[in-house]
Amino acid sequence: MISVEQALDRILGYIRVLDSDEVPILDCLGQVLAEEVSATFNIPPRDNSAMDGYAVRSQDTQGASRQSPRRLRVLGTAAAGAVSDYALLPGTAVRIMTGAFLPQGADSVVRFEDTDEASREGMAEIGIQREVAEGWDIRRAGEDIARGARVLGRGTVISPAEIGVLASLGRTTVRVIRRPVVAILTTGDELVDAGEPLPEGKIYNSNGYSLAALVRFYGGIPKMLGIARDSETSVVAGLRGGLDADMLVTSGGVSRGDYDVVKDVLAKQGEISFWTVCMKPGKPLAFGVIKGDRDIPHLGLPGNPVSVMVTFEMFVRPAILKMLGKQPLNKPTIDAIIENTVANTDGRRVYARVIVSKRQGQYFARLTGPQGSGILTSVSRANG
Predict the structure, then answer these.
(1) CA dihedral in degrees (104, 107, 112, 115; nearest 10)?
(2) How confident is the prediction along the chain (384 residues), in pLDDT tens digits per residue?
(3) What is the pTM of this model?
(4) 3-state helix/strand/coil string of the chain
């Protein structure tokens, strides 16, 4: 029996970052950038207005106030998306909309609310009611992104903000580390798939759905192989459907029972690195490789549903994140005061499901309730 840290080191020592794919930008949320992205043009491309108002020469506003407005002749209107040929001379202004390019000769913008526009008709001239400095309410060319600048670096995790940046550069695709395909096989004569009638003595296959949801949640692509019965023939046949995956994950069949055959199949079809870990829940956990045209890492998780979710979080999750090229691999931790008695009867590290709260600057943790490895609601109620 090895420690949690030793088990994780062995697993991550085998796992490699996957290759990259060119992916549509809306499909790469949460993936890791595998290229440098640079700008071929300025954003914004030219100086433009940050507000609806009037483009002016700042020196024409000197001394302007509500009591003593400066009157400027209006040459016309500049709209966003259109290129105008207006050129400001002393004593003139151009009515301008947000995002419109600044006319030649203008160096600032006066907002509508700082003019007497609302009280005037015809708009032959406008009264400027405040003094503005050069650059007032102007977005400069390249102030967001300058031409030639590196915008996104290799290793960046793509969030909605990065997708927006890529779109602003005109990109429709980007090269990212591809998502790992994780094949999932659940084992047990007692299992029935969700949606089917439930005969006496049987239980629904929650593990398959929990695992698929976890794989998807952490950025992988689940490939559900269904249910294998407690025989080597059935397990081998089930695993064959996942030989094109990047990782195989099974639940059940790795302890010492008469019908626990997964570790035996793993030994015959590949090699076992370890099969017990000093933790509770989750002691019976096997790791190795399935041999074939290429070696595929295989994690054999326990059969109890809580053990499945805990061991996934501790071992499968970091493996998926490493395949994706992400860092860090460990979950964040905090120090908290436990508000219940947690019994440790055999020296294994205990992973209790808790509800964490903060009171007066201190974190506290209380158990979600009974902690049996078959009580899946102990996980659904937990936030730590």
Answers:
(1) -110
(2) 999 999 999 999 999 999 999 999 999 999 999 999 999 999 999 999 999 999 999 999 999 999 999 999 999 999 999 888 999 999 999 999 999 999 999 999 999 999 998 765 556 899 999 999 999 999 999 999 999 999 999 999 999 999 999 999 999 999 999 999 999 999 999 999 999 999 999 999 999 999 999 999 999 999 999 999 988 899 999 999 999 999 999 999 777 665 578 878 888 888 888 889 999 999 999 999 998 888 999 999 999 999 999 999 999 999 999 999 999 999 999 999 999 999 898 999 999 999 999 999 999 999 999 999 999 999 999 999
(3) 0.90
(4) CECHHHHHHHHHHHCCCCCEEEEEHHHCCCCEECCCEECCCCECCCCEECCCEEEECHHHHCCCCCCCCEEEEEEEEECCCCCCCCECCCCEEEEECCCCECCECCCEEEEHHHECHHHCCCCCEEEECCCCCCCCCEECCCCCECCCCEEECCCCECCHHHHHHHHHCCCCEEEEECCCEEEEEEECCCEECCCCCCCCCCEECHHHHHHHHHHHHCCCEEEEEEEECCCHHHHHHHHHCCCCCCEEEEECCCCCCCCCCHHHHHHHHEEEEECCECEECCCCCEEEEECCCCCEEEEEECCCHHHHHHHHHHHHHHHHHHHCCCCCCCCCCCCCEECCCCCCCCCCEECCCEEEEEECCEEEEEECCCCCCCCCHHHHCCCC
